[in-house]
Design brief:
Elements (H helix, E strand, L loop, with lengths): L1 H20 L16 E6 L4 E6 L3 E2 L8 E6 L3 E9 L12 E4 L5 E9 L2 E10 L3 E10 H6 L1 H9 L2 E2 L6
């Protein structure tokens, strides 16, 4: 009889240890959507594209054709636009961090946080002719939880021959 109790006790301990050693439900990367659908915005005037989650809302292109606003509810606003490069109006790039785009080009990234908002500005200047910008404003909580999504959008910025190029 003692052997039976020890066996039950040992099996119970093994089950308890197995249950405790697993990660908490909902805390693994596996629970994040990995196959989220993405769409691409393409700007023919300045010749650039940027990918964004398909569930986000693509606004109407600006009247002058320089870009568009992409939003995700009240959590994220993205301005994707370009302009002819003007050195006098260019941002001070020495205050930026380098970031490499998927096309292996280096862009400049500015990151600021204020209250509950994170602001990111990506600047890429092509041949001193065209300045491409992604201005992203996100709640800090959203950005911290979905940074990989925002980083993917930034990295997707790409260029082709537009009508201004």
């Amino acid at each position: 009889m003692k052997m039976g109790r020890w066996l039950i006790l040992a099996l119970s301990m093994l089950l308890l240890l197995g249950a405790c050693s697993g990660e908490e439900e909902g805390s693994t990367e596996e629970n994040k959507p990995t196959n989220e659908e993405w769409s691409t915005y393409s700007n023919s005037r300045f010749g650039f594209t940027v990918d964004y989650p398909a569930a986000w809302e693509l606004g109407k292109e600006s009247d002058n054709g320089d870009g568009v606003q992409i939003t995700h509810g009240d959590e994220v606003t993205v301005l994707a636009y370009a302009s002819l490069f003007n050195e006098e109006m260019a941002p001070d790039l020495s205050q930026s961090e380098p970031t490499t785009l998927d096309n292996d080009r280096d862009a400049n990234l500015f990151v600021t946080k204020d209250n509950n908002t994170t602001n990111l500005q990506v600047v890429f200047i092509l041949d001193d002719r065209i300045q491409y910008n992604l201005d992203i404003t996100a709640s800090t909580a959203y950005y911290e939880t979905n940074r990989d999504q925002v980083d993917r959008m930034i990295a997707s910025l790409d260029f082709f021959e537009g009508t201004e190029g």
